[in-house]
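User: Could you go from structure to sequence for me? I need the amino acid at each position, not a summary. Structure tokens:
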């Protein structure tokens, strides 16, 4: 089972900058299919306010997504990316329709496994 956190305003598009997202849609799927289901809608406190970032809020935002393996956003800054990646999450900027972004992600995972010999 793969869990993907999607930064979205409406549950249809990957259209939120990580730091401005006030909710993430948590999706569950298997790595061998692009079909997914909505596990939950998780409300969060945006960590970017007028360009400022509170250290504790950044850590809390990353911690809130630590049960996921992937994060899909429209944009993300290096500080937030580093915080998520330090927790083992893989972050991708994939703006667009959620179904299409998830399909691209699953295809990418399959290719990576082939290249890694898994």
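Assistant: Here is the amino acid at each position, in order:
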């Amino acid at each position: 089972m793969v869990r993907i956190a999607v930064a979205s305003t409406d549950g249809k598009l990957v259209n939120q900058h990580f730091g401005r997202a006030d909710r993430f849609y948590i999706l569950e799927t298997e790595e061998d299919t692009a079909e997914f289901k909505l596990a939950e809608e998780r409300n969060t406190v945006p960590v970017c306010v007028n360009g400022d970032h509170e250290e504790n809020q950044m850590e809390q935002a990353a911690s809130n997504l630590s049960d996921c393996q992937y994060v899909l956003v429209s944009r993300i800054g290096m500080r937030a990316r580093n915080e998520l990646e330090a927790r083992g999450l893989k972050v991708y900027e994939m703006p667009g329709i959620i179904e299409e972004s998830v399909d691209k992600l699953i295809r990418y995972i399959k290719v990576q496994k082939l290249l890694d010999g898994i």
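One structural detail worth keeping in mind: The first helix runs from residue 55 to 64.
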